[in-house]
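Troubleshooting: if your tokenizer reports a length mismatch, compare your output against this known-good record of 312 residues.
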Amino acid sequence: MAEYRSIRERYGLLEMFKNPELSAEVTLQPVKAFSVDAAIIFADILLPLEGMGAGFEFAQGEGPVIHRPVRTAADANALRVAHPEEDLGYVLKALELVRKELNGEVALIGFAGAPFTLASYMIEGRSSRSFLLTKKMMYEQRRVWDKIMSKLAETITAYLLAQFKAGAQVLQLFDSWVGCLAPTDYREFVLPYSQTILQALRQAGVPSIHFGTATADLLPLMRAAGGDIIGIDWRTGLDVAWSRVGEGAGVQGNLDPVTLFAPWQLLAARAKEILDRAGGRPGHVFNVGHGILPATPVDSVKRLADFVHEHR
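Known-good structure output:
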């Protein structure tokens, strides 16, 4: 959006995240521009790492870079459990501002990264294709892995509950890179930690969304880990994915974000196919299957939001 780019030209990403007023403004931009049903707070999944002692930066052309990767027992022992009010108070303040501005007319979603995805950044030091170092630690240094994952789970649980207290009405757990795992590894090394977080949210009465990408074979396990809504990407038909999720949960998805670059006739056809696969069944949140790309045509987003409202 031009409104966002105008702000981005003047501030770095971390500056924007740590300025509650700017974060609130950016959060509200799409709500004001499109007929969306929810706002999601402008933040980043990596923000809790700073409070844990794993500082990072968004390097030009590289994405997030962890200054001191966590790869040994000593590194894991040195990690702290972040305190949401002290280390992430700027996100909580932004949520308060947005909730007040929305005035009950649109829902507000908070979020955090899941333990596996955050651990992969901490261990690899940056984004990865193979997740070689992450998997090697899982297999070769189980105690170190469990230490990292336990501290992440504790940090994320407290952070999400604080977001709920600050005004978020739904909380999303982003496990963006968990699709790199085989089901056996997910069950053994990941599921217990995500389950700890999602069970805490359920006990607090907070609706939750559990999201991942490339997770077609992991969907039953993700459902077992928890979440009222399971996010699905575009690689599996919505009806097929929903059958794998099983009864008792809804689904979120699942338009390929690149489809927003297609001619309108094709985009509308793909959106209708998703709605047809949902079949009017309660519990479907129409969404893209991952993040919207920076160059996405704004008019396509607007037309899509209106189309979904007209055909739901």
